[in-house]
């Protein structure tokens, strides 16, 4: 079952779909050549928004969760990709340690961990789950729905290695985005592979670096296809050191928002698009408390000056960060897909260089210009029974869900190439040859 | 839908299944290390027979046909494996030329070619089909059932390269086993990848080399698992220069058959197996006219001395080869699987190092000790909707079709490792470092 797509099926995006399908051999070759020079993230997921006239990734996760939202039918692809990934990194691997988030009571999250364990076990590894939560002092087995379970075990650190009691892994897979900072226990591991690397964690990583890399990738890809890179790239700007609680730097933020809205308006005019431009404002360091704020007019920002004067309460999920924060102002991309009448955006899952699955994130109570990654979202897997992510040559643009998903897979992989560039550019251990 | 399995579900084979499942991480690691040292065949398929007490590959095809017998659901795995294969061989690849058999009227075979074209097109290549059949003098489009079609084009040879008019491939994929000899048009290609290599063709390849390599592989694998390699290895002997038409060398053949039947009888006794031993006799060079002859008693060979004296007619599919032929005497392996009451044997398909699918070859009119690869066979795909080739940890031995198929995938891959050794040992261009 592939979700019913109600995207506006005319206009430039279908030209893009047709262009992408026609260029498939050139595109796949381009990716192959990229991966000769760059290392793909071990795994990643990408949130994609399809405005009908524009298609772009809006968030790229290097510690993807939600693997349990993929159908069982997608498992073999994930397993095959995991085998390819392991073979490259450490063919001699026997043991893999998965380090999850410290949400030991969230069974939805733990079902994701169980799925990851299953994928890597099926790829032929001994897999165990090591918690860095100080509350886990002895092995704790947690039963999950559908008869599954996860056993969280306390990690044990020696001078050079991290493991469990009687379990010495050669590779450590982080499913913990380290937004609270890098724990010392993960540092200075000289004889083990730690994936993703520590500088992918949200205490170090910056969205602005990723957006900068993605802009570069979209320009090169646009050249390959002969298209305006704007069709796949959301414009952005960075407003550094804004203290929303104190109202400091609000003028800089406002002028960035104003300038970006003007640029988007100009682009909409160029393409004859009758939509109201908007931008989203979010923290550069991916911090959760602030959330993602949709700004349709500079006046929307006045709430912060009122809040800083104690005249407006913060809404849940959009608390005002304390102290100066670096913010990102990003061109908003509408999502014009609907699944069962709910606003939907596709999420593409990748392992090594391969697209292994995807689903629609659906939120019935949000509008097409709002963030859907909020409590209340549901997930509709892109089922595999129709080979949903392989292109169907000859099908009419817009009419074929498989072709649509091939296009999403291309955009997801562009975000993955950008993440690879980003990780290289921000690697603290990188040697400089200049 | 996974075919109903009626294999005798007790006895040593289930111990083997359990041993294989328990050793999964060690097995996968073993394969990874093998592929560090050796190159897997580009693609291959392996016929496997499951006697209940013994499980072995009986034929390994380096020019696999029948890709159209895999379900559509297996396509994504094949495409992903094809991408991995291309990336290793020629990441810069744009164009792939497929060279099929010269059966331009066999729509079953051409449906296989169409499937291969589809797989490699989806992997991102421009794919065309170049016929070496002298009868194909201009492009010929052949319509197939289900709205598919294949276009056969005449190949064009230049001094160093082979291609089509206005189509210069970097890689040439043979789906033609060259049993009639290597055409000069394929020789001395110095700037193109030709896969599989010419010495994989049946005018050069010898089954005895493969069986010798497989014996070595099964010994090493037996050691890894702590099992008698006989459980996965059919014993064999080679009888050179037998002229069945003239009755020459029949004494050598008879003594080999007798000796092998005795050896099998001894093994059956060791394991308490109440079955009648048999051997199969086939041409070392894979020649079709002779077929595969089941010999249950040395007396069965008398037909050849009667035939050579003109006293017995040859049966269809078992014509007597003219002139001296090298023969293989191989331990017969019963197949005790049934699908819809027909005798069945699993066939495993591999691309690069990955198992990408499989089906049961079923023949209602053959018995469990006879070759099933004959006219009248039908094919029941192992469907993907149940992730049929991934193991299900915890399921009872013998009770789980997915676990059963994981085991078949392991045996298929052992045959693939053996083919890799075989190709190395018989490579005429190999450099010797001794």
UniProtKB/TrEMBL annotation, chains A, B:
This is Glutamate--cysteine ligase. Transmembrane segments: none annotated. The gene is gshA_2. It comes from the Bacteria. Pfam families: GshA. It comes from Variovorax defluvii. GO terms for molecular function: ligase activity. InterPro entries: GshA (IPR011718), GshA_N (IPR042520). Keywords: Ligase.
